């Protein structure tokens, strides 16, 4: 291991450690957790900030298990199947330090890493890939899931996953990008969004939703966004062409007819969704013939009803979007460095306050993202 001359690497560190699936009580703040050391091809990062995301909450709660059919919640699920409780459908090892969206500084390197990397400011590429088959989606892992992540003072990650960044933004601001914005850009890439499209974005005030607005605007698309009434002006300021309050639903899940009529005049070609839930069928019905649906979440509920005639008679294309294409993260870094996208930092918490931070994240009263500072 090689370290920068000005850095002392402690034997122990503070970390929020997830001990198993369940509620927030499974996340235990540790004052003297062993500080990692980089192995071959790895770097040690002193963390400046770490952002929150739904994957951390869903994995800890066991929401990814097929036995769970309810919306994302901060609480643990009693019915999880221990054989498939993580994003990739395989068991996760505990204890685990979660947290994927880091910004920090490389303070030590393992063998095989260029010495010039010492002292570099970096953000995380969250996708862990097989070096011999980086495009093989069956051989991917996620930082903070299949290995320890960023809810700590230090973390180790592969050299290729520590992306050099040159920016005047703060560590807290930069920690809002890795997961949310790469997810959004991955969705737009998968759906092949261009300036010819009109895109509908439910949940536009969340981390992914607000990133979708900015990134779709950069592509020149017409943007229709759904959010809470109190957030309409903020989402318009991000570049949305039109913003509507989320629809109210009757007992059968049917939206207010005024909502449906308001969007019926729009020629919606793309629906970019991380929400799902009861309103899903009505939103699918708004897609034009030949339209595309891309999904990377279901925070309002994963179980939805689809009339297959809608899918095939109207020539719709459905795409899931989880593992991003290799060109997404380098493109996102360029967007950050050139100011194409801006951070939406809603709140900062201390690492020891992660319970409160996740509760605020789940409450969805904010716009953008929330970070913790070690």
How do the helices and strands line up, and which of them pair or pack?
Blueprint: E1 2-3, E2 12-18, E3 27-34, E4 42-51, H1 54-61, E5 101-109, E6 121-124, E7 127-129, E8 140-142, E9 154-158, E10 162-164, H2 171-174, H3 178-190, E11 198-201, H4 207-218, E12 222-227, H5 232-238, E13 242-245, H6 257-264, E14 268-273, H7 280-284, E15 287-295, H8 308-313, E16 317-320, H9 328-338, E17 345-350, H10 354-363, E18 369-373
Parallel strand pairs: 11-12, 11-14, 12-13, 14-15, 15-16, 17-18
Antiparallel strand pairs: 1-5, 2-3, 4-5, 4-9, 4-18, 5-6, 6-10, 7-8
What do you see in this structure?
The chain has 374 residues and is of the alpha/beta class. It folds into 2 domains: 2-177 and 343-373, Quinone Oxidoreductase, Chain A, domain 1; 183-320, 3-Layer(aba) Sandwich (Rossmann fold), CATH 3.40.50.720. It is 22% helix and 26% strand. It is built from 10 helices and 18 strands. The chain has helices spanning 54-61, 171-174, 178-190, 207-218, 232-238, 257-264, 280-284, 308-313, 328-338, 354-363; strands at residues 2-3, 12-18, 27-34, 42-51, 101-109, 121-124, 127-129, 140-142, 154-158, 162-164, 198-201, 222-227, 242-245, 268-273, 287-295, 317-320, 345-350, 369-373. Strands 1, 4, 5, 6, 9, 10, 17 and 18 form an 8-stranded mixed sheet that branches. Strands 13-12-11-14-15-16 form a 6-stranded parallel sheet, covered by helices on one side. Helix 7 links the parallel strand 14 (268-273) and strand 15 (287-295). Helix 3 crosses helix 4. The longest helix has 13 residues, at 178-190. It is globular. The two termini are 24 Å apart. The relative contact order is 0.15.
């Amino acid at each position: 291991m090689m370290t920068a001359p000005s850095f002392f690497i402690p034997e122990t560190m503070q970390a929020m450690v997830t001990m198993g699936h369940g509620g927030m009580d499974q996340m235990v703040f540790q004052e003297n957790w062993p500080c990692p050391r980089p192995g071959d091809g790895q770097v040690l990062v002193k963390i400046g900030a770490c952002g929150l995301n739904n994957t951390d909450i869903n994995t800890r709660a066991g929401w990814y298990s097929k036995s769970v059919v309810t919306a994302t919640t901060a609480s643990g699920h009693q019915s999880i199947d221990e054989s498939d409780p993580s994003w990739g459908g395989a068991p996760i090892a505990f204890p685990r330090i979660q947290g994927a969206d880091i910004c920090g500084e490389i303070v030590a390197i393992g063998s095989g890493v260029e010495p010039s990397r010492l002292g570099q400011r970096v953000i995380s590429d969250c996708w862990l890939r097989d070096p011999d088959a980086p495009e093989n989606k069956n051989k991917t892992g996620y930082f903070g899931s299949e290995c320890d992540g960023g809810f700590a003072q230090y973390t180790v990650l592969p050299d290729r996953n520590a992306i050099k960044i040159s920016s005047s933004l703060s560590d807290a601001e930069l920690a809002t990008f890795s997961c949310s914005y790469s997810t959004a850009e991955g969705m737009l890439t998968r759906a092949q969004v261009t300036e010819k499209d009109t895109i509908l974005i439910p949940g536009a005030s969340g981390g992914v939703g607000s990133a979708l607005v900015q990134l779709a605007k950069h592509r020149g698309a017409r943007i229709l966004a759904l959010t809470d009434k109190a957030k309409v002006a903020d989402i318009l300021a991000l570049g949305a062409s039109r913003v509507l309050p989320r629809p109210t639903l009757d007992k059968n899940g049917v939206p207010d007819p005024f909502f449906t009529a308001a969007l019926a005049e729009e020629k919606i070609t793309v629906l970019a969704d991380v929400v799902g839930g009861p309103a899903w069928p009505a939103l699918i019905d708004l897609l034009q013939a030949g339209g595309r649906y891309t999904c990377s979440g279901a925070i309002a509920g994963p179980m939805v009803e689809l009339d297959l005639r809608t899918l095939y008679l109207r020539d719709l294309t459905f795409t899931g979007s989880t593992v991003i294409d290799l060109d997404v993260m380098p493109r996102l870094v360029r967007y950050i460095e050139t100011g194409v996208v801006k951070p939406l930092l809603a709140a900062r918490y201390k690492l020891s306050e992660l319970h409160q931070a996740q509760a605020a994240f789940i409450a969805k009263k904010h716009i953008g993202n929330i970070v913790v500072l070690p």
